[in-house]
Amino acid sequence: MAIEPEKIKQLREMTSAGMLDCKKALEETGGDIKKSADLLREKGIIKAVKKMERAASEGRLFSYVHHNGKLATLVELNCETDFVAKNEMFQELGKNIAMHIAASAPLYVNSENVPQDEIDKETEIQKAALEQEGKPANVIEKILEGKIKKYVSEITLLEQPFVKEPSMTVFDLIKETISKTGENISVGRFIRYTI
Fold first, then answer.
1. Which pTM was predicted?
2. Strand partners, 64
3. Do 130 and 144 touch, CB atoms closer than 8 A?
4. 115-155 has which fold?
5. CATH H superfamily, domain 58-109+156-194
C-alpha cells in the first residue's frame, strides 16, 4: 500500500516522530493516522522525542581511524547518566556515528549550526543557476526552497542518511537508541581530520 506524503506529514506533526517511523507505522495500520500514532507510542518513539528535551550532561568521546591512517574522526556523544554511557547500545551508536562522519564528511551537527551567511551564499549560487536556465521568477522561489533544504541536509550530520542504513537519518538512529535506553542522547560536537 502506497502511503500519501500528506498523511506522513500529518502524523509527523502530531507525534514529532521521524519520517521513516511515520511511514512504517502508517503502512502497518493501513494508513489510519490515529492507529499509527498509537503504534508509535507503543514502540516508544514518541517518548524518545520527549526525552530529547532533557539535559544530557554525561557521555563519551568516540573515535574512528581509517585503515590507511589518513582519515580520523572524534565525536562527543552525550547522554543523561554514566550508566547509559557505559551501555553497549550507546557504545555502538558512538562508534557508528564516528564512522559515519568519516564516510560522509558533514560540516555541522544540525541545521541550527549552519551559519546564515553560508545559506545566503548557497542561495545566491542556486538562484543564479536557475536564472541562467531561464526559469520564471515565481518558480525560482519554490525550487530554491527545496534546493536549500537539500543542501543543508547534505552538510549536517543529523540530517544525513546514515551510511550503513540510508533509509534512515543519523537523527533517526539516535532516536531509535533513545527509545531503547530511555535517556536523551545528543551529539555535542565532532571533528574530522584528513591528510
1. 0.69
2. 73
3. yes
4. GTP Cyclohydrolase I; Chain A, domain 1 (1.10.286)
5. Elongation factor Ts, dimerisation domain (3.30.479.20)
Check residue 33 and give left, alpha or beta (phi > 0: left; psi -120 to 50: alpha): alpha
From the list 188, 168, 149, 192, the residue with the least C-alpha distance to 58 is: 188
Residue 73 near residue 190 (C-beta atoms within 8 A): yes
- Tens-of-pLDDT digits for all 195 residues of the chain? 678 888 888 877 766 677 788 888 888 888 888 888 877 767 665 555 555 555 566 889 999 999 999 999 999 999 988 888 899 999 999 999 999 999 999 999 999 999 999 999 999 998 888 888 888 888 888 888 889 999 999 999 999 999 999 999 999 999 888 888 888 899 999 999 999
Secondary structure letter of residue 75 according to DSSP: E
Cell 534546493 belongs to: 147
Residues in the chain: 195
**Nine-digit cell string for 154:** 547534505
**The C-alpha cell of 152 is what?**
543543508
Cβ 186 vs Cβ 52: under 8 Å? yes
Q: Which residues contact 63 (CB under 8 A, 6 or more apart)?
A: 72, 73, 74, 75, 98
